[in-house]
Amino acid sequence: MPSVFSSTVISECQRQQLESVSYSSRYALGLFYEAGTKIDVPWAGQYITSNPCIRFVSIDNKKRNIESSEIGPSLVIHTTVPFGVTHLEHSSEDVQELIFQQLENILPGLPQPVAMICQKWRYSQVTNAVANCPGQMTLHLKPSLVCGGDGFTQSNFDGCITSSLCVLEALKNYI
């Protein structure tokens, strides 16, 4: 009996379609502050268009409308796609330092965080979804093997919902 994962499970055409999906890459930097630290800006999130490194800054506690004397604020910084692609194979420590330096240009006088976490998103957002497979791709009927996700739609919540409904529709006749 052939393995379910043998090369005959998917056709050459399906393999090529799946391999054609492309994603942008970027980094996210989380900054964490002691309780009582004030981040004095009038916004909870800011889309940045004038910086080659940073695309978005969010003050998490303001975004969630949570004020606490026991928990310090945190910032989340997303990089631009070109920065992410250029620095994709660099060490997280080096990238973290570059992002933090650029953040100081955007928010001068920012307090020193007590902790920082740099996260690489190698597959951040779909730039080219699978062609001619809206929402899902059925790879095999018995056993059922269906691919879904934003690689078949678009990189946002609506795209994920659309894909999940398409996967459900593809599977419901076989369950």
Structure, explained:
The structure is a single chain. With 175 residues, the chain is of the alpha+beta class. Helices cover 27% and strands 28% of the residues. The protein is built from five helices and seven strands. The strands form two sheets. It has a five-stranded antiparallel β-sheet. A hairpin with a 4-residue loop joins strand 6 and strand 7. The longest helix is centred in the middle third of the chain and has 15 residues. It is elongated. The chain starts with 11 loop residues before the first helix and ends with a helix.
Write the layout of secondary structure elements.
Blueprint (H helix, E strand, L loop, with lengths): L11 H8 L2 E11 L12 E3 L6 E6 H4 L10 E6 L1 H6 L5 H15 L8 E14 L7 E5 L4 E4 L8 H15 L4
Antiparallel strand pairs: 1-4, 1-5, 2-3, 3-4, 6-7
InterPro entries: FAD/NAD-bd_sf, RNLS
Organism: Galeopterus variegatus
Protein name: Renalase
Provide the structure class.
Answer: alpha+beta
Q: What fraction strand?
A: 25-35%
What is the share of helical residues? 25-40%
Uncertain residue segments: 1-6
Quick one: overall form?
Answer: elongated
Largest sheet: 5 strands, antiparallel
The overall average pLDDT, rounded, is 89
The number of helical runs is: 5
Query: What is the distance, rounded to the nearest whole angstrom, between the alpha carbons of the first and last residues?
Result: 23 Å
Secondary-structure element sequence? HEEEHEHHEEEH
Largest sheet, spatial ordering of strands: 2-3-4-1-5
Radius of gyration: 21 Å
Query: Which oligomerization state do the chains in this entry correspond to?
Result: single chain
Number of strands: 7
